[in-house]
Design a protein that fits this description.
heterodimer; A: alpha/beta; Rossmann fold; five-stranded parallel sheet; four-stranded parallel sheet; 9 strands; B: alpha/beta; three-stranded antiparallel sheet; about 30% strand
Chain lengths: ~350, ~200
């Protein structure tokens, strides 16, 4: 069994999410400096092990590791021995044997990151496993939203998203982003509505604490944030939609629909965007769109996740976490954070 | 400052029990007034000064110091806040988290920086602070002001301005708060996480 990791938003709970967001505030300050680098994780190694395509997640994790002064290794399936038939287990155990502290894993199968965590000694961060979860995306979305709401209110960011009404629109059923976002937004007190065709909804949303609706035009006037999902054509195995044109007409933020929107409505998208399908260019590039902020904040939030894993040092103990017990195990705590020298 | 004692108490799984009041609130204020005069004397005024409080205990003292400097010579000395978490040398050895966002309002190049902290102990926080400051410009000089120097240095670091030199045992805890400076111990609390 591996050390602490981040496999699901559920690993963090409300307190853990808030801790990551506050830490990300500090790393956003670091990122804004002329030299955006701190020595925090010198000597540590972060490996990105991606069995699926990625642009922003992978680059963002590598930028985060480098700004923390960690070394990075990167593995892409197309240039690896996986093409010669090496198994997942042998592949990740090989990477582990090279001596890495954090393994950032993406895989097309749900549960893959958790399985890898059972095989390796490194901390495992789930960067997307099939249709299950993508926790760092949800964290950077929470960070971006809290920043945007604070900027609008002219205040400093608060921890909660209490009462903020968010609609997650589109291919919820295939979306790992949606699952992580429902958990994270919900933990911070937001009211989440899922909107999309019945064929693209999860088989059940029991216990999710969300409302499910099928008419976007009805929902739009009732919400503060419209979170659009990409139509996952690579995971659409059957004819779940009559046509892409009809999908866009009913569930896309089209130019026509954009004209009727409340001027204060915020639009988010985890990327990659398919312009003209789920989102019109006019909307994606408008002032209400947080898409670029989401990408920029991704680095600070991932710095926070990596730093918290390797330096925050409160690994989950089976059967419940007890920070007090952990701290008393440290010799001479007064020379450290306890009584600052 | 109270927060710092809370952290100290938590990290040892116990509660702070004060044994003696070393300085009362007036003593702390008088020491700060003296330090403000010493800073102005040594630097021939406040021209290129920047005051930077170390997170968390140094911040209220730094705020107070800036108002005192303004009272004495009408200056408007910039105030910064520095969290050294990402520069500590014990990352990975014990839990380290940032307490507050660093705010350095000006480029420190060619400025005289007065670092302010409540208690000087091992010197490791100040070592980290010197590295952190270097990322905000090449200061002309860095000076260190502390309310209490309690000894037990582990690095070759000394303060320029001291409120009070206080001999202590390693296992004692010094609390600098709104009511003054107290010396005491952290004792174990009964119950989970409290046993030592």
């Amino acid at each position: 069994m591996s050390r602490a990791g981040l496999l699901s938003i559920g690993d963090l709970g409300r307190e853990g999410i808030v801790e990551v967001l506050r830490l990300a505030d500090s790393f956003a300050e670091v990122s804004a400096r002329a030299i955006p680098k701190v020595p925090a994780l010198r000597g540590k190694t972060v490996a990105t092990v991606f069995f699926e395509a990625s642009t922003r997640t992978r680059l963002s994790f590598e930028a985060a590791a480098k700004r923390l002064s960690a070394d990075t290794m990167s593995f892409a399936v197309t240039t690896s021995s996986v093409t010669k038939g090496e198994s997942l287990r042998d592949t990740v155990e090989t990477v582990d044997a090279l001596g890495v502290d954090v393994m950032v894993v993406r895989h097309a199968s749900s549960g893959a990151a958790a399985q890898v965590a059972r095989w390796v000694d490194a901390c495992v961060v789930n960067a997307g496993d099939g249709q299950h979860e993508h926790p760092t995306q949800a964290l950077l979305d929470c960070f971006t939203l809290r920043e945007a709401l604070a900027a609008r209110a002219g205040s400093t960011p608060v921890d909660d998203l209490d009462g903020v009404r968010i609609a997650i629109v589109g291919d919820v059923g295939h979306s790992r982003v949606a699952r992580s976002c429902v958990l994270a937004f919900g933990a911070l007190g937001a009211r989440v509505t899922l909107v999309g065709p019945a064929t693209l909804m999860p088989p059940t949303t029991q216990g999710w604490g969300v409302e499910v609706r099928h008419d976007l035009d009805e929902v739009l006037p009732e919400i503060d944030v419209c979170y659009l999902l990409r139509l996952q054509s690579e995971r659409l195995r059957e004819a779940l939609l009559p046509s892409l044109g009809e999908y866009s007409e009913r569930f896309g933020l089209t130019r026509d629909r954009a004209r009727r929107l409340d001027p204060d409505l915020l639009v988010m998208h985890p990327g990659p965007m398919i312009r003209g399908l789920e989102i019109a260019s006019e909307v994606a590039d408008s002032a209400r769109s947080l898409v670029t902020r989401q990408v920029r904040n991704g680095v600070a939030v991932r710095m926070a996740v990596l730093f918290r894993l390797l330096a925050g040092g409160l690994p989950p103990v089976p059967g419940g976490m007890d920070p007090g017990a952990l701290a008393t195990a440290q010799p001479e705590p007064e020379t450290g954070g306890a009584q600052h020298g | 400052m109270v927060n710092q004692v809370r952290v100290a108490a938590r990290s040892r799984g116990g509660a702070f029990v004060p044994r003696a009041t070393v300085m009362d609130a007036d003593d702390v204020r008088r020491a700060l007034v003296r330090i403000a005069h010493e800073i102005l004397e040594r630097n021939h005024g406040s021209g290129s000064l920047v005051v930077v409080g170390l997170q968390t205990g140094g911040v209220p003292l730094a705020e107070h110091l800036v108002t005192l400097l303004a009272d004495i010579d009408g200056s408007d000395v910039p105030l910064g806040v520095l969290d050294v978490a990402f520069y500590r040398d014990d990352i990975g050895i014990r839990p380290v988290l940032a307490e507050e966002v660093t705010r350095i309002p000006v480029d420190l190049s060619e400025r005289v920086v007065v670092l302010v902290d409540d208690v000087l102990f091992t010197g490791r926080t100040v070592r980290a602070a010197l590295d952190a400051l270097a990322d905000h410009g090449r200061a002309r000089s860095v000076q260190l002001a502390v309310m209490v120097d309690r000894g037990h240095r582990e690095l070759p670091i000394r303060p320029d301005y001291v409120g009070k030199n206080l001999p202590t045992r390693r296992d004692e805890v010094v609390e600098v708060g709104a009511s003054g400076v107290r010396l005491g111990e952290v004792v174990a609390l009964p119950g989970p996480g409290g046993a030592r």
